[in-house]
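Per reviewer request, we include the raw input and output of the structure prediction for the construct analysed in the revised manuscript.
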Amino acid sequence: MACRPILLGHRGVRGDKSIPENSLAAFDRALEEGCDGFEFDVRLTACGHMVICHDPKVNGIAICCATVAELPHLPEFPDVLQRYSRRGFLDIEIKVSGLEAKVLTALREHPPELDYVVSSFLPDVLLELKARSELVPVGIICEKAGQLVGWNKLPVDYVMAHKSLVTRKLVQSVHETTRKLLVWTVNDPSSMLRLAGWGVDGIISDDPRLLARTLA
């Protein structure tokens, strides 16, 4: 390894069932275990608040139809920024369109002092972010081979590829365009070491303790 990759906890901690994923406790644990930061998901409530949750529904409640008062256990995005902006790398995944302006406003009000990326599966979200702010670092998330087609035509700074898609050739291709490559979700030491040896820029894992012990 010429340089150790960035180590990120997936939704903070996803592998420990005693800690809710995408929670402040999960984010704290990822950092305590030795990761450089964490990935988390942002959705929009009916009343215009940005909350942290992966799934579109929680406890049977559709987030897009709920008020923030109905979801008191979900962290809000500005609070997460304020709490962690000085503590680690933040991979901010936007799950739905319509959040772009609000996310950028929150980033201006609580600018991360360490590095960060705003990522999404949705190319239109990334295009809207870049149209509003050329400086915001954005990343396209790819889970299937078809989603990798055309990544180099998007104005992205990062490619966030599922581990099944990553080859030495992809790493080289991404780096040749001066982009960075983050890989998810990597949960076994042999894959962590192999990907680090290939020179990927970051690894996202459900098990931040294992990730840090393997590579930190």
